[in-house]
Write a structure and sequence with these properties.
The chain is an alpha+beta fold. About 30% of the residues lie in helices and about 25% in strands. It has a domain of about 230 residues: FAD/NAD(P)-binding domain (3-Layer(bba) Sandwich). Strands 8, 9, 10, 14, 15, 16, 17, 18 and 19 form a nine-stranded mixed β-sheet that branches. It has a six-stranded mixed β-sheet with strand order 12-5-2-13-21-20. The structure holds flavin-adenine dinucleotide (FAD).
């Protein structure tokens, strides 16, 4: 598609047609905060940005953005949600080329850009590289056929080279090295994005706490507290993470046609036809293990093998995370998951390189809940049209940090740009309509 810079003149012409939109966002986790930031930046910087074709398109301006959050403060919200985890990894999907692998790569570069723009303190992230170890011998051999993975920005480390560079590892396997990836503190990322959004929008940005929105209210577009009637918003974005199955529900929302761009093959390929519900809740437990740095090796990068192990971050190595489907979110820790997380250290690292008995170290656990879709891709886009529109930005699964910013940039354009190009902004693979919602 033709890429054209929007000139100031075009912008001013468009400005005449502008309408001002009021946007409600439900949820203040990574998803909610990313869409708020993306909308605020698009509103502020759209005239010097690049978009595909300009004819017949015009910008809506943001009149105001209000985030509604059910917890009674941001800190309380982050205490309970996955977005409040102390660390999260950004890493590519090491798999054959597909929409998911390419979109994740694009997402990672968007997130890295955001981290820099947000001036996140250096203690809150480190793109120290991520080393992927294969699950088994077959995968190790398969990774050697690098041509299958050409679209990833990661490189193959043969088993000979692996042990030269990572002496402390136990296994002699072919590995994948993603030098551009690493870890981020999701909690600090969320806080920094809110600060910037406040700066960009001033009084046009509000966060309202103690607002546990129910499906019926959403359908009727109203809140019990009429002061904040949803009727006064042009667009509502559901970004409720672990609360999403209550609000986005095939039975209660009007059924929609699948996007016309979907082919029969797309549907089979992605397993959309299985009997599983299209949204699931999946609990995860991560463990922080206190480490005396003088007494152990210095793991320099994140290591991933059926979970992850971080370098020492503020005195702790983080190991995670379990993956258990649950009916309702809960935060009960369990010993089995802790043991597995601690064992990840001794399973991956040669014992001679650490003097500490990790099982007696001070540890802490944190359990939170992911929202995962049936095809393991996010759900981003319109779920109810009309004068007042309802959008979804959810099902970020285990990759909220890699997917949130890119999904938000796409959705912000969908909400604020009007005209001919609208259809092509969000990929059919992540549209809600693939699940007929
Ligand atoms: C154990 C674990 C480890 C993970 N590790 C990684 C990782 O290494 N890298 C990575 O990228 N991702 C990781 N993730 C995933 C990542 O944390 C999530 O994808 C991300 O936090 C999801 O953000 P969210 O905003 O969609 O949802 P959430 O974090 O669930 O936030 C939803 C918010 O909406 C609010 N809310 C819910 N319902 C309502 C309602 N009805 N009305 C008003 N407000 C409501 C909630 O209170 C909450 O504040 C991990 C997740 C888990 C559980």
């Amino acid at each position: 598609m033709l890429q054209i810079n929007i000139t100031l003149l075009e912008y001013l012409n468009n400005e005449k047609k502008n309408t001002h939109v009021k946007i409600a966002i439900i949820g203040s986790g990574i998803a909610g905060v990313c869409i708020a930031r993306a909308l605020a930046r698009l509103d502020k910087f759209s005239f010097d940005g690049q978009i595909s074709e300009t004819q017949d398109n015009f910008f809506h301006k943001v009149e105001n953005i209000t985030i509604f959050e059910k917890a009674n403060s941001l800190d309380e919200a982050l205490k309970k949600s996955a977005s409040g985890n102390p660390i999260g990894i950004i890493h590519p999907i090491i798999s054959k080329r597909s929409f998911a692998t390419e979109w994740t790569e694009q997402g990672i570069f968007t997130t890295i850009k955001w981290v820099k723009e947000l001036n996140l303190g250096s203690q809150f992230y480190d793109f120290c590289g991520v080393l992927h170890l294969p699950r088994n011998k077959e995968q190790s051999l398969d990774w050697k056929k690098l041509e299958n993975y050409q679209s990833t920005k990661s490189e193959l480390l043969t088993k000979e080279n692996l042990l030269k560079e990572f002496k402390y590892l136990k296994s002699e396997v072919n590995a994948m090295w993603s030098s551009h990836c690493g870890w981020i503190s999701p909690k600090e990322f969320v806080k920094a994005a809110i600060i910037e959004t406040k700066q960009n929008l001033g009084k046009r940005f509000k966060m309202i706490f103690n607002s546990n929105l129910q499906l019926q209210q959403l359908k009727e577009y109203k809140f019990i507290d009429q002061k904040y009637s949803l009727k006064s918003f042009d667009s509502v974005v559901i970004a409720t993470g672990f609360g999403s199955p209550n609000l986005i529900n095939q039975k209660t929302l009007k059924k929609r046609e699948q996007d016309k761009r979907f082919q029969k093959n797309d549907i089979n390929e992605q397993g959309l036809t299985s009997n599983k519900p299209f949204l699931e809740l999946v609990n995860g437990q991560m463990t922080g293990i206190q480490i005396d740095c003088s007494n152990t090796i210095n793991i320099k990068s994140v290591i991933c093998k059926s979970g992850y192990l971080t370098p020492v971050i503020n005195g702790f190595i983080y190991s995670g995370a379990s993956y258990e489907t649950v009916k309702k979110p809960h935060d009960f820790t369990n010993v089995k998951n802790r043991t597995e997380n601690i064992k990840r250290l001794s399973n991956l690292i040669c014992p001679k390189y650490f003097k500490t008995d990790f099982e007696t170290q001070l540890t802490f656990d944190r359990v939170s809940t992911r929202c995962v879709s049936k095809d393991k891709l996010p759900i981003v886009g319109l779920i109810m049209g009309g004068n007042q529109k309802i959008y979804a930005l959810t099902a970020l699964g285990s990759r909220g940090l890699s997917w949130g910013p890119l999904a938000a940039e796409n959705l912000a354009k969908e909400i604020l740009l009007d005209g001919r190009i609208k259809k092509s902004i969000i990929s059919k693979h992540i549209l809600p309509s693939r699940f007929k919602i």
